[in-house]
Specification:
This protein is of the alpha+beta class. The chain has 2 domains: 179 residues, D-Maltodextrin-Binding Protein, domain 2, CATH 3.40.190.10; 239 residues, Periplasmic binding protein-like II (D-Maltodextrin-Binding Protein, domain 2, 3-Layer(aba) Sandwich), CATH 3.40.190. 40% of the residues lie in helices and 14% in strands. The protein is built from 17 helices and 13 strands. The strands form 3 sheets. Strands 7, 8, 9, 10, 11 and 13 form a 6-stranded mixed sheet that branches. The longest helix has 20 residues. It starts with 8 loop residues before the first strand and ends with a helix.
């Protein structure tokens, strides 16, 4: 997930004489082609540069990597596609994103990245059944917590729980968070939750990831599959409950959230100033090695007071799909296919994805490359306990404009310049109008 970088990075890995090839095909050899990857994830920007450089060192094939600033991928992609040397490899966030870029998507049906999928049904197909987009990482998010600080709270005489395992519903989470906030001086923290910042590096956590939870429960109750033309406000009371918990039990006054960044929230948690932090598995690289030891890192599901939520697991899915640009030369397409095959089959590529980037991947080549990320282990523990993972439904949100409308309404509500009715309007009416605009 895009998180902490506030300005775009244009980073180039590699260059050198194009004297080698990856060896997967003689026809259309990658020795004649090059790779340009427009990466979506700022937190892995330098990791991709290093991996690309290693590939160039081994093969002589030029691989350039550019990473879009947080929250700007779509506009950056549009700009780069209009240039004379557009990306050969780019990303879409799911079916809605693919619909925008399907005309540029090469058929990946015979590719190594498709053949090596554990479950080929997770690939995104076009209208004629051709394979157009391949997920390369499965990620999980929830409420990250500091076990040591939470156990310090539990040791207080008036603690609402006696064990972390008791937090399996909203009411219990609320009692714990409010108890921590009331005892923050005794616990040596600045708040129960990190700041819910509305800078572009942070607001996606609430207008997209948090908004997914009421959508999940509505879609589950109504049997919705795909992208509905309209949604209801049925679970928005739960959305309000959890958002109120965040902003009323925080390191930061709710009226000061507009300028708070993702980096602020990360630092507050990593330095032990807050107990809870809504984020995902991708945040581990930014947290590790600071004040919170790996053994003290845990992750809770996001509870909103929905029926049956005690059986809920973490929110797991993908919005990271590789697409190869069919508008570039055949040599560049082949070079890009070869590069991706190397990424998912070589020791260097698998080690980088699993251990350096901390990804859980959907490919059968990673059996010996399972990451040690404690948040991934937490997800595995919920799955082993029989909890039901929450699906990623935000991939069918109708547009970035819809998300922005919800985000603006949430900020106005937090700053007390708007009411919750404004959030409901942006959520429900905004969905219907944006669906109409994007679907005709």
């Amino acid at each position: 997930m895009a998180t902490l970088i506030a300005a775009g990075i244009a980073v180039t890995a590699a260059a050198g004489a194009l004297t080698g090839c990856s060896g997967s095909s003689d026809e259309g050899s990658s020795s004649e082609g090059k790779v340009y990857y427009l990466n979506f994830k700022p937190e892995q920007a330098e990791d991709w540069v290093a991996l690309a450089a290693e590939y160039t060192k081994e093969t002589g094939v030029q691989v350039d990597v550019q990473t879009a600033a947080s929250g700007t991928y779509e506009t950056t992609l549009k700009s780069e596609m209009a240039k004379s040397n557009p990306p050969t490899l780019f990303q879409v966030n799911g079916p809605v994103g693919l619909a925008t870029w399907s005309d540029y998507a090469a058929d990946l049906s015979g590719s190594a990245i498709y053949e090596h999928l554990n479950d080929q049904s997770v690939a995104l197909a076009g209208d004629d059944g051709e394979v157009l987009a391949i997920p390369y990482v499965q990620e999980t998010y929830g409420i990250i917590y500091n076990k040591k600080l939470l156990n310090d709270y539990i040791a207080l005489p008036d603690a609402a729980i006696t064990s972390i395992d008791e937090i399996d519903n909203f009411d219990t989470l609320k009692a714990v968070a409010e108890g921590i906030q009331a005892n923050k001086d005794a616990l040596g923290v600045e708040g129960a939750f990190t700041s819910a910042g509305f800078d572009p590096s942070s607001d996606w956590r609430f207008k997209t990831h948090l908004a997914n939870i009421p959508l999940y429960y509505q879609f589950k109750a109504d049997g919705v599959t795909g992208q509905p033309a309209t949604i209801t406000d049925e679970y928005l009371d739960g959305y309000q409950r959890i958002f109120d918990l965040y902003i009323n039990n925080s390191t930061t006054e709710r009226t000061l959230l507009s300028s708070k960044t993702g980096e602020d929230a990360n630092a507050e948690f990593a330095l032990g100033k807050a107990v809870f932090y809504q984020n995902g598995t991708w945040a581990y690289n930014d947290i590790k090695g600071q004040a919170v030891a790996d053994e003290d890192l845990g992750m809770l599901p996001i509870y909103i007071g929905a029926d049956g939520e005690e059986n809920q697991g973490l929110t797991t899915g993908s919005e990271n799909y590789w697409v190869i640009n069919n508008e570039v030369s055949e040599a560049d397409q082949q070079a890009t296919l070869d590069f991706l095959e190397w990424v998912i089959t070589s020791d260097e590529g698998r080690d980088a994805l699993a251990n350096t980037m901390g990804f859980v991947t959907p490919f059968d080549t990673f059996a010996d490359y399972l990451p040690s990320n404690p948040f991934i282990l937490a997800d595995a523990a919920y799955t082993a306990a029989g909890k039901t993972a929450v699906t990623w439904n935000f991939t069918v949100m109708p547009s970035e404009e819809w998300k922005n409308g919800v985000g603006q309404a949430l900020l106005q509500y937090a700053q007390e310049t708007g009411d919750w009715a404004g959030v409901e309007t942006a959520f429900v009416d905004g969905w219907a109008s944006e669906y109409t605009l994007t679907n005709g």
